Amino acid sequence: MSDLQNAYESMTARIGEEKPATDWFELTQERINDFADVTLDHQWIHIDEERAKVGPFGTTIAHGQLTLSIMSHLPGGGSIGIPQLPGQKLTINYGFDRVRFPSPVPVGAMIRTTSTLKRVEIKGEMIETMNEVVLEVQGSEKPAIVAESLARLVF
């Protein structure tokens, strides 16, 4: 049996498996400001701490795109990361099927992610996986992000 087929069977057996949560990670104003500079998104709800105090959230909040960008790189778990399989050359971020931002991430918030493997398909010489990723904010009942993240494992 080929490496691709072995990997497919191995991954298929893991559908429904939830990976452990990442470590908690603080989202600082400095990181938010840096992201604003890189993306040219200087909306006041993200960078103007004084104005944000009287705004709808009572403080500055992280950009949704910032939290989406870093969620797969949070320390202590790599909840989205897929282990290297025999014969696998690399893993490609293939995008998202669905992304929602149910609640904001206030400055100073501690965030972490969990991930559940939902789908595995062979696509030519690749395996496409879909993980449901949830980004939690410590102390909040609602998640900040719920996303269906796609990856392609190249063999």
Can you tell me about this structure?
With 155 residues, the chain is an alpha+beta fold. It has a single domain (3-26, 63-154), classed as Hotdog Thioesterase (Thiol Ester Dehydrase, Chain A, Roll). It is 24% helix and 33% strand. The chain is built from five helices and six strands. Strands 1, 2, 3, 4, 5 and 6 form a six-stranded antiparallel beta sheet that branches. A hairpin with a 2-residue loop joins β4 (110-123) and β5 (126-137). The longest helix has 11 residues, at 29-39.
Key attributes of the depicted protein:
155 residues, alpha+beta, 6-stranded antiparallel sheet, 6 strands
Structural class: alpha+beta
Q: Roughly how many Å apart are the termini?
A: 14 Å
Radius of gyration: 18 Å
Oligomer: single chain
Helix content: 10-25%
Estimate the mean pLDDT confidence. 93
Assign the CATH superfamily: Hotdog Thioesterase
Number of helices: 5
CATH topology (fold) name: Thiol Ester Dehydrase, Chain A
**Structural domain tally:** 1
Low-confidence stretches: none
The major pleated sheet works out as: 6 strands, antiparallel
CATH architectural arrangement:
Roll
The percentage of residues in β strands lies in 25-35%
Strand/helix succession: HEEHHHHEEEE
- Principal-axis shape equals elongated
Number of strands: 6
